[in-house]
From TrEMBL:
Disordered: region residues: 1196-1241
Positions of transmembrane segments: 425-444, 456-475
Naturally occurring in which organism (per UniProt): Equus caballus
InterPro entries, A to Z: Ig-like_dom, Ig-like_dom_sf, Ig-like_fold, Ig-like_Receptors_ImmuneReg, Ig_sub, Ig_sub2
UniProt protein name: Immunoglobulin superfamily member 1
Signal peptide residue numbers: 1-28
């Protein structure tokens, strides 16, 4: 007895556990089903023959809704908008006919969109009951001992439900529920309960009328436990020394859990049923490398059972150490100056995900940066303190590195404040000295005119010294205030061409050889081939592919030598290509070998160029007889890879090429390449300030920076040095250099990198930046698969289709500087995978392709495609063109527009079962033309997306468009109160008067596609009020109306009414009849016309202050008595309702006279006046000529006076030069005889 009790206890525990699990399975799905899916059923008032009159009802499960949707056969839709929110609505079908048969479902509107559809109701031909649906209420197969509920939905109420099992003639159970669903329960599941079940219904009063059998349901008793799930918190990637929790969850309650590690037989930790109820988990403290591994979770069963346990998901725990610490430096220095900012630069020699900056004096301070630059401002001295930085990499985003060495920023305290004050005082004094020196210079220049020659020379020397001091001071100021970071302009040489050989004898290429030269620059005019650097072989004009062929034919001794080619442009010659060396008549050309500087512990690629396509390659090392590596035919070049560079890999290398088939014909070995591992600084940080994908003519700046100080930088393009910068000795912080290309050309693309060096060491090369110059090749096409709208967490593939093969592709996203992905393919297309997309992946994407052999010449950017990461399609917009109010018989186009590309659209008309469809639209517009519109076309329309791929994303309908057809009723009248012109800010009312009662009035405005407003007044008139009108309310208005009994069948348009919202009416027009020229004895009528009725016109004549005439009809008669009618006229008007407001004047109109007595009198007067003017001008010319003849004598007299003054100065100089010679004073010379000396002018 004692041995049996534990077994009985275990059996009771097992049954109790199964009972709990079965209850959970039975109740869990019920709640889920009730929450979202609506219920669809049939009601009829003919219980004996329900097909005579059918009404479908749709009921939302848990909430009221404002819209319901009935779908038939997945395409035809019927909308119901109840006047108030309700739980259920009805869809009358009527008598069942062949046109009504099909598959029906219904949906209801939720806050987030349409709900899941109901279960499918199949209506067949009249005389048959609808086919019931049959399902089991459980997530998984039932376990032994559980109770199972099987549900049968018969669609109609008061039916008899029969449950049949395969192999039994009689039903195993039946029910008569009050609703449309019957629940059959099978208690205590056993293997005997397994089998195939079906359900049928019949009418209670007519037991001979049966429905079709439901789809069969196969019931199988499960023999495995449900799967458990294991989750690591906070992440499966854990830092050394941290703690991690492993959460194990399973659907079976009341059962313990055990944690296992792969490779160990015994469980590491156990959790009993009480611990699971307390939401405890497996806990690993202070993890080390020994804790890394693969973990799984199993049920802990305390009884024996034949039910198997399924496989469990596993979690791989990765234990990593913190990455190495970065370097932190300050630019321009660690000294905070008032009003100046400091940039802290956190640097590491590899790409990271994010940098973080911490401030020790403030625990809550933390800044993040992608490029590692942090700007610190010293406002009120609050920027000083100790800083450190860390980073994290994309591979382990939750692991932050060790912190950098602390960096202290000091403020200008004590002596530093006095130093700052002193510097400012020196600067101010320097400015004062410059102003004083400028004044001295001006004084010297003024004084030199009155002093003797020697004193003038001395003062001139002083002036030169002063100007030199000023220039030196200005240079000193410029050096003090100049930038510390250099910016070096890159003078790009003409792109280097490419030289290669082709042959039609691959086994013996020397029998017929042709050399080809190709340039990356599209402006190349001609190519030149040179032999041995001096002998000119030939010139060839450039073809459309910017290349030229130089046939050599069969090789002879005269062909042996070194060849290279140049490309010629209009004003420049390119650098020579790589030298191609022909060494014999039956020997392949000598290849060229190169490699980047080797770095210990890193991968190294050795490049071997062989000139001919289809050749094999072999790499040799000195001291080793056999090749160390061999590659088959891979084109004209090959890359040999040394996976990890060590000391044993140092030495001299060379490469050779050979023909593809035996017996091999070999080339001469290339020149030796010496590989020596040298100690190097870490590689610099290299980037472009803008995107590396640029258009021709763009400005590109490369930034090369490093924490090391006082170093020089070198910029490389495709491995060749193109620019360098000198040491920045004035910069005490981190060094940096900016290399600038002012205007990028097609040939400037390529792979750029930089290095730095000092007296002792070089750095490692930086990561390359691929500069792509676009707009050379045709643009590619970019498509999204499966579509541009995707659920969060799913994958999207972007396929970029180019025009040429063997290109490299890049994927770009709008808003990011660096391309997201690169891919090189042998074909003409590339596929980019966006894995597990999120909301941040939404945006515009484009792609480009380019060739890597010729300066990264790229294509035009593809047309961008918008990727939406959402669970609901964005709402489209439906509008009509030219307007939604259309005259009878005209054409109209309904446009469904949305931001999603690559989808179709469905147009639906309210209360119609069919829908007009537009499939496979590749633009963002869907056009639905309606020609020869009639009364059948009126109604309410809406549209929605129809993607041509299978998508679970919810679709929401567009706005509702009311299409109105005019010309079916008499036209109304439209009036404006108080008038058609009002000032801004005032109120206006437009009154539309119809001829029929119970009408809906619609106000329209010219230029707008939709009606402005609709009203349903009780009488014959609608008042459309426009409060506080503005300038944009000006325009041409009209109105229509339609009867409520015949909606949207509208009247003709009313007469147009023009409205002005302005402080001053618009100007009128002024014209003359019959012409603007007076004829002898004839009058002219001036006609002033304005846009408004009920106005008074006034005519104005230039030269007269008061208005000349007033008129109500705008006609003014002008006569030309004594020539007073000639001149410029204008007119204006005022409204009788606003007599103080005048319009703007019209354009001027000129009236001229004709050849009559008055005209002749005017002509004679003009001739007299013109003659007097000519006489005065001639007299003035004679006077000027006389005065000009007198001018030389006056000029000679002035010269004699100036010469006398200069003679006095010269004699004084002679007196000082000859001692003992008497010199007359100026007074004596003036009293005695004057001595005339020649004075140079």
């Amino acid at each position: 007895m004692t041995l049996d009790r534990p077994g009985k206890g275990a059996t009771m525990l097992w049954k109790f556990t199964l009972l709990l699990f079965c209850i959970r399975l039975s109740l869990g799905m019920t709640s889920v089903a009730i929450q979202s899916q609506p219920e669809l059923w049939i009601e009829t008032n003919y219980p004996q023959a329900p097909w005579e009159n059918i009404t479908l009802w749709c009921k939302s499960p848990s909430r009221i809704s404002s819209k319901f949707l009935l779908l038939k056969d997945k395409t035809q839709m019927t909308w119901i908008r109840p006047s108030y929110k309700t739980f259920q609505v009805s869809f009358p079908i009527g008598a069942l006919t062949e046109s009504n048969t099909g598959l029906y479902r219904c949906c209801y509107w939720k806050e987030t969109g349409w709900s899941e559809p109901s279960k499918v109701l199949e209506l067949k031909a009249p005389g048959q009951l609808p086919k019931p649906i049959f399902w089991i209420q459980a997530e998984t197969s039932p376990l032994p001992g559980c109770n199972v509920n099987i549900l049968c939905h018969g669609w109609l109420q008061d039916l008899v439900f029969m449950l049949f099992k395969e192999g039994y003639a009689e039903p195993v159970d039946y029910q008569v529920p009050t609703g449309t669903v019957a629940i059959f329960s099978i208690a205590n599941m056993t293997p005997e309960s397994e089998g195939v079940y079906i359900c049928r219904t019949h009418i209670q009063m007519l037991p001979t009328l049966w429905s079709e059998p439901s789809n069969p349901l196969k019931l199988i008793v499960a023999d495995t436990f449900p799967k458990t799930w294991l989750l690591a918190q906070p992440s499966p990637v854990v830092q050394m020394g941290q703690n991690v929790s492993l959460w194990c969850q399973g659907p079976v309650d009341g059962v313990g859990l055990a944690l296992y590690k792969k490779g160990e037989d015994k469980p590491l930790q156990l959790l009993d049923t009480t611990s699971i109820d307390d939401n405890e988990s497996f806990f690993l403290n202070n993890v080390t490398y020994s804790d890394a591994g693969i973990y799984s979770c199993h049920y802990l069963l305390s009884w024996k059972t034949s039910i198997r346990v399924t496989s469990h998901n596993t979690v791989e725990l990765v234990v990593v150490d913190k990455p190495s610490k970065p370097s932190l430096s300050a630019w321009p220095s660690t000294m905070c100056k008032p009003g100046k900012a400091i940039t802290l630069q956190c640097r590491v020699p590899y790409t990271v995900l994010e940098f973080s900056l911490e401030w020790e004096e403030r625990a809550t301070f933390q800044k993040f940066s992608v490029d590692g630059d942090f700007t610190i401002s010293n406002v009120e001295g609050k920027g000083t303190g100790t800083y450190s930085c860390s980073y994290r990499r994309e591979a382990h985003a939750n692991i932050w590195s060790h912190r950098s060495e602390p960096l202290k920023l000091m403020g200008p305290a004590g002596f530093l404040i006095w130093n700052y004050v002193l510097n400012e005082a020196i600067r101010l004094s320097l400015i004062i000295q410059l102003v004083a020196l400028l004044l001295v210079v001006l004084w010297i220049r003024w004084k030199c005119r009155r002093l003797r020659i020697r004193e003038a020379w001395l003062l001139g020397t002083a002036q030169g010294v002063t100007m030199l001091f000023i220039v030196t001071a200005l240079l000193c100021c410029g050096l003090c205030n100049g930038v510390l970071t250099e910016e070096t302009e890159i003078i790009m040489p003409t792109p280097k061409p490419e030289l290669w050989a082709e042959t039609n004898f691959p086994l013996a290429p020397w029998k017929n050889l042709t050399l080809w030269c190709r340039s990356p620059s599209s402006s190349t005019k001609e190519f030149v081939l040179l032999k041995d650097g001096t002998g000119w072989i030939a010139t060839r004009p450039a073809s459309e592919q910017v290349r030229a062929a130089f046939p050599l034919g069969a090789l002879t001794q005269s062909h042996i030598g070194s060849y290279h080619c140049h490309s010629w442009e209009e004003m420049a010659v390119s650098e020579p290509s790589e030298a191609l060396e022909l060494v014999g008549t039956d020997i392949l050309p000598k290849p060229v070998i190169s490699a980047s500087p080797p770095i210990r512990g890193q991968e190294l690629q050795i490049w071997c160029k062989g000139w001919l396509a289809g050749m094999g390659f072999a790499l040799y090392k000195d001291g080793v007889q056999e090749p160390v590596q061999q590659l088959g035919a891979v084109g004209r070049e090959a890359f040999f890879t040394i996976q990890r560079m060590e000391d044993k890999d140092e030495g001299n290398y060379s490469c050779r090429t050979h023909t593809e088939k035996h017996p091999f014909k070999w080339s001469e070995p290339s020149e030796p390449l010496e590989l020596v591992i040298k100690e190097m600084y870490p590689k610099p940080f290299f980037k472009t300030w803008a995107s590396p994908v640029v258009t021709p003519g763009a400005r590109v700046t490369f930034n090369c920076s490093t924490p090391h100080q006082r170093v020089s930088f070198i910029l490389y393009k495709d491995g060749s040095e193109i620019a360098s910068s000198d040491k920045s000795w004035a910069n005490p912080g981190a060094s940096a250099a900016h290399f600038l290309i002012i205007s990028v050309g097609i040939g400037d693309g390529g792979n750029y990198s930089c290095r730095y060096y000092d007296f002792a060491f070089w750095s490692e090369p930086s990561d390359p930046v691929e500069l792509v110059v676009t707009e050379f090749y045709p643009k590619p096409t970019l498509l999204a698969q499966p579509g541009p709208v995707v659920l969060p967490g799913k994958n999207v593939t972007l396929r970029c289709q180019g025009a040429f093969q063997g290109m490299r592709f890049a994927l770009l996203q709008e808003g990011t500087l660096v391309p997201l992905q690169f891919q090189s393919t042998p074909g003409n297309s590339a596929e980019f995978l966006l894995h597990t997309v999120g909301a941040e992946d939404s945006g515009n994407y484009s792609c480009v392709y380019y060739e890597t052999t010729m300066s990264n010449r790229g294509s035009h950017l593809s047309k961008s495609i918008m990727i939406w990461v959402t669970d609901t399609f964005p709402k489209p917009w439906l509008f009509a063109e030219p307007s939604s109010v259309v005259p009878m018989g005209q054409n109209v186009t309904l446009w469904c527009q949305g931001p999603v590309h690559g989808v179709g659209y469905i147009l639906h008309k309210e209360r119609e079962a069919t829908s007009m469809q537009l499939w496979g639209s590749t633009s963002n517009d869907g056009a639905f033309p309606i020609t020869n519109i009639s009364g059948a076309s009126i109604g309410r329309y809406s549209c929605c997306y129809h993607p041509d791929w299978t998508s679970p994303i919810k679709i929401q309908p567009s706005n509702t468009l009311e299409l109105i057809v005019t010309g079916l009723l008499p036209k109304p009248s439209l009036l404006a109160q108080p008038g058609p012109m009002v000032a801004p800010g005032e109120n206006m009312t437009l009154q539309c008067q119809g001829e029929l009662p119970d009408s809906t009035f619609v106000l329209l405005k010219e230029g707008t596609q939709e009606p402005l407003e609709q009203q349903r007044p009780s009488g014959y008139r609608a008042d459309f009020r426009m409060p506080a009108v503005r300038g944009e309310d000006s325009g041409i208005y009209s109105c229509i109306y339609y009867l409520d009994s015949a909606p949207f069948a509208a009247s003709n348009h009313s007469d147009s009414l023009k409205i002005w919202v302005t402080d001053k009416p618009p100007k009128p027009s002024l014209s003359a009849w019959p012409s603007t020229m007076f004829k002898l004895g004839k009058d002219i009528t001036l006609q002033c016309r304005g846009p408004l009725p009920g106005v008074e016109f006034v005519l104005e004549h230039d030269g007269e202050e008061a208005p000349q005439q007033f008129s109500e009809d705008g006609d003014f008669v002008i006569n030309n008595v004594e020539g007073k009618g000639i001149g410029n006229y204008s007119c204006s008007y005022r409204l009788q309702a606003y007599p103080d407001i005048w319009s703007e004047p019209s354009d001027l109109l000129e009236l001229v006279g004709a050849a009559g007595p008055a005209a002749q009198e005017c002509t004679v007067g003009n001739i007299v006046r013109s003659s007097l003017i000519v006489v005065v001008v001639v007299a003035l010319g004679v006077v000027l000529a006389i005065e000009w003849k007198k001018w030389p004598r006056l000029r000679t007299r002035d010269s004699e006076t100036d010469g006398r003054d200069q003679t006095i100065a010269l004699e004084e100089c002679n007196q000082e030069g000859e001692p003992g010679t008497s010199t007359n004073s100026p007074s004596s010379i003036s009293q005695g005889t004057s001595v005339e000396l020649p004075v140079p002018i």
